[in-house]
Amino acid sequence: MRGIYTNVNDIRKRVFAEVAKLSYEYEDGFNMEVMHQLPYHIIPGTVATYRDSAFLERAIVRERARLAMGLPLRSFEEYNSITKGVEECTKPETYYEPPLVNIIKFACHKCPDNVMKVTDACQGCLAHPCKEVCPRDAIRIYEGKSHIDPEKCIKCGKCKDACAYGAILKMDRPCVKSCGMKAIGSDENGCADIDYDKCVSCGQCLANCPFGAIADKAQIFQTIQAIKSDVPVYAAIAPAAAGQFGPDMTPQKIRSGFKALGFEDVVEVAIGADLCTISEAEAFVKEVPDEIPFMATSCCPAWSMMAKKLFPEQAKCISMALTPMVLTGRLIKKDHPGCKVAFIGPCSAKKLEAMRKSIRSDVDFVLTFEEVMGMFEAKEVDFKKLEPDHSMHGASADGRGFAIGGGVANAVSEYLKENYPDVELKVEKADGLENCRRLLTLAKAGKYNGYLLEGMGCPGGCVAGAGTIQPIASTARAIQSHQAQSSMKHASTSEYADILDHLEEKDIVVPQE
């Protein structure tokens, strides 16, 4: 559903906008009545628009509003007010209680999963090839039509492939189908359920649920409270931002747009991507194959977490370079001591990365593009009236390309060509966690010894992150256009490249855990 503006997108945006408006208007002492009224602003009247009941619609919006403020879903086994625990999240600091990704059970449609279904397209043909190819005799012909016995069916799909009319479907839950970690099952009531021991918070389930039953927690309220405080808050903008806010928000207007939200200033995370490129390239030359058989990139937290969960023996092969987000956060705080940093990007998993205890992330808040769009709505920012600012030219074209699948490996490759022309760099890449699993399975078997492996948890790379707004292809084109505007092509020519020489090792690599 990427790039198709649906009712689910509309509700999400309106919830984010209302929570942002609530935070901008918030002063000392929380007005509980305003939060009680919030669902009625989004779902007015008594006639349902999206579901069977307006009352159900408002109940779902209440939970979405709580999640957008970082609050947990409520238990409905006993009475709990919509404002329960709200005092905890009104401070200008990072706040949410795990888990990050949540299923609103009464919004779940209990979609059929792994079911073979004969549709009305069945023509009752004489040949009945579906019946003939079934290895378990699970198909019978009744009144000329094919019928599948679910008790016998093993979901092999042979009947589906044999049908000349395409009348047989294999139905999978969209959330299950999109989860490369196989972390989603069903609870005792048939609702979707997440196994958090497997989940890496990539957010693909929430992006693909057609009923909007899955949502991650946000830090909109806390970020705005920090903006309203005396402490300056800097926005660190991910490379995937190009084109995300529509054609009127050009890269030249990003700075003025975010200042209109109250941010002190804006810094490109692509600058950190340049530093990450240099760090990973230098480590590759030093460590592969003498110390580790291959090196895997580190910038995608969902990929990195998946590798550590499923391939613990290969965890040492994940690059120890800090991610572009963390490196940019450290640079900002080095230049502006005492400030706060909000990472603005496409990714749900970055919210967890920013809170990891094993490293000092220097990132105080993480917001997705979708959440920030709610802030623009709340402040009624007119992109057409924003003044262009041409000063955001600190990153190389390769650094800006990190957002597209293959971009990280390309940046490292270009750096090595310039600085180590005798080093042969073999690259293999995968995007989407299912493909990433296969890649690491082959790497574990020794197929990719001597390689640089790039993994991206989302299909197509960061351009398909759970918090993106625009279609993947159009975002990729916008990023390529932004790359062409860069005055520097490769990471080694970045004006920030020499910073690595002045940073201590603890500031540029992840410490061994």
- Class inferred from helices and paired strands: alpha/beta
User: What's the Cα radius of gyration?
Assistant: 25 Å
Separation of termini? 39 Å
Let me know the number of strands.
15
Strand-residue proportion: 5-15%
Mean pLDDT: 92
The coarse silhouette is globular
Largest sheet, strands/sense/barrel = 4 strands, parallel
Placed side by side, the strands forming the largest sheet appear as 10-9-12-13
Number of discrete helical segments: 18
pLDDT < 50 stretches: 508-513
How much helicity do the residues have? 25-40%
3D architecture notes:
This protein is of the alpha/beta class and 513 residues long. The chain is built from 18 helices and 15 strands. It has a four-stranded parallel β-sheet with strand order 10-9-12-13, with helices on both faces. Helix 1 (7-25) runs parallel beside helix 8, helix 2 packs across helix 3 and helix 11 crosses helix 17. The protein starts with 6 loop residues before the first helix and ends in a 29-residue tail after the last helix.
